From TrEMBL:
Residues 107-471 form the GS catalytic domain. The gene is glnA. This is Glutamine synthetase. Belongs to the glutamine synthetase family. Residues 15-99 form the GS beta-grasp domain. It is found in: Cytoplasm. Binds 2 Mg(2+) ions per subunit. NCBIfam families: GlnA. It comes from Acidianus ambivalens (Desulfurolobus ambivalens).
């Protein structure tokens, strides 16, 4: 993959590329693109960028009177698009037009600022998200006339409701079944092979997840903040396209079906010295989980800001349908070793391995904007270190089974139960983000999410007819 502007030009020539997809991410986290002729790339444009964006048409960007914007390619992200011969894609940075500099609401800019800030503090961080998703055969939606009512139908070959005559995965029994019960292994492997061969990924595992209906997971090798966020957007792009090639629909929404597990993006995080030579979260003398005092402060910072972080890492109205007890999704703000009912756990598969020491933050889901989510997680962790925030004692029992009195005794608080509640928390607890998140992106983000919540609250849920029709 290219590593410089000059490498990009050579890449385009060597691969006989005719078209290039310029890709970027809006404030809510959706990927956008514009396709331009490869002949537009020359020694000047690869350094100055392409004036091809009307920012007023992108959520969270600009007003109509300041809409001319420039897209500058990130060389390391240029790759072939395997399903469209002669086409390459590249992720871009967003700049104001007229030479006014970097666009401050470009989510990738926030990720880059977070990386600069951590280096100024003497740190570097690594992120490893577990990407879960569903692959359905088809989705039937009826939302064209909401005044008449709305509804949807999921068609999924392995689901109990399908009556396909083949193998069925029962609710909550989808974890690691071997083929032919796992009917989507070939689709996942095609996505994995595409990521490895064309997009430079190192894949650690892929498997069927707990839910029925085609829930899967792909885990890739951890990396630095902005690069990991690029990879999240790339993985979603590839999985959706591979599924579409098979006439199927891939979705990363947190809770697409009732009565089974939702889709998370459990995020592994570790903090190292700036040169990447020492894991600051590892202490071989710690008897509990080989976690250092610095590691405990990291946990303390994330737990302290967990309710505000929810607005960024659990970023949709649908996220809070996933965050309910009984479906392996975290609800309670606590930490532990190997305990998946806690919002943070310290994985303990191995002992005495410095590079493996990390925490797993289980609240995020893939509806978030990964550039903003990873930056916010880092800032909460650093705030914990700077303020020496103690996380309290770990909780080594199933928190879902504790009585309210016992949780209160242990000081265990709950995550917000709705996006609106999470946004309230973010508005009252955002100082820790301000060294990296400028006020304009925070204000814009909150306004967009408030509008999203307001809009969806106006639509009656189909099940409300069942409960309230006779009232």
């Amino acid at each position: 993959m290219p590593s410089s502007p000059e490498d990009m030009l050579k890449f385009l020539k060597d691969n006989k590329i005719e078209w290039v997809d310029l890709q970027f991410t809006d404030v809510p986290g959706r990927l956008h693109h514009i396709t331009i002729p490869a002949s537009e790339f020359d020694e000047n444009t690869v350094k100055t960028g392409f004036g091809k964006l009307d920012g007023s048409s992108i959520k969270g960007f600009t007003m109509i009177y300041e809409s001319d914007m420039v897209l500058l390619p990130v060389p390391e992200t240029m790759t072939l698009v395997p399903w469209t011969p002669g086409v390459a894609r590249v992720i871009t940075k967003v700049f104001w037009g007229g030479g006014k500099g970097r666009f401050e609401r470009d989510p990738r800019f926030i990720a880059e600022e977070a990386e600069k800030y951590q280096l100024s503090q003497g740190y570097t961080s690594f992120f490893g998200p577990e990407m879960e998703f569903f692959i359905f055969d088809k989705i039937d939606l009826d939302v064209a006339t909401p005044q008449r009512g709305t509804g949807y139908k999921i068609i999924a070959r392995e689901a109990p409701w399908q009556n396909s005559g083949g193998f069925v995965i029962r609710y909550k029994e989808g974890y690691y079944p071997a083929p032919p019960v796992d009917q989507l292994m070939d689709v996942r492997l095609e996505a994995v092979e595409t990521l490895v061969k064309y997009f430079g990924f190192t894949i650690e595992a892929t498997h069927h997840e707990v839910a029925t209906g085609g829930q899967g997971e792909i885990d890739f090798r951890f990396s630095t903040l902005a690069d990991t966020a690029d990879k999240v957007q790339t993985l979603k792009y590839v999985v959706k396209n591979v599924a579409a090639k098979h006439g199927m629909v891939a979705t990363f929404m947190p809770k697409p079906m009732f009565g089974d597990n939702g889709t998370g993006m459990h995020t592994h995080f570790s903090l190292w010295t700036a040169d990447g030579k020492k894991n600051l979260m590892y202490d071989p003398n710690d008897e509990y989980a080989e976690i250092s005092q610095t590691g405990r402060y990291v946990i303390g910072g994330i737990l302290h800001h967990a309710r505000a972080l929810s607005a960024i890492v659990s970023a949709s109205v649908n996220s809070y349908r996933r965050l309910v007890p009984g479906f392996e999704a975290p609800v309670y703000i606590a930490w532990s070793k190997s305990n998946r009912s806690a919002i943070i756990r310290v994985p303990s598969y191995y002992k005495g391995i410095e590079k493996a020491k990390r925490i797993e933050y289980r609240a995020p889901d893939p509806s978030c904007n990964p550039y903003l989510a990873f930056a916010a997680i880092l800032m909460a962790a650093l705030d914990g270190i700077n303020k020496k925030i103690d996380p309290g004692d770990p909780v080594d029992e199933n928190i879902y089974h504790l009585t309210p009195e016992k949780r209160k005794q242990l000081g265990i608080k709950e995550l917000p139960r709705s996006l609106d509640e999470a946004l309230d928390e973010l508005e009252s607890d955002k100082e820790f983000l301000k060294p990296v998140f400028n006020s304009t992106i925070l204000d814009t983000y909150i306004d967009l999410k408030r509008e999203e919540a307001k809009t969806l609250q106006m639509y009656p849920h189909p099940m409300e007819l069942y409960y309230y029709l006779d009232s």
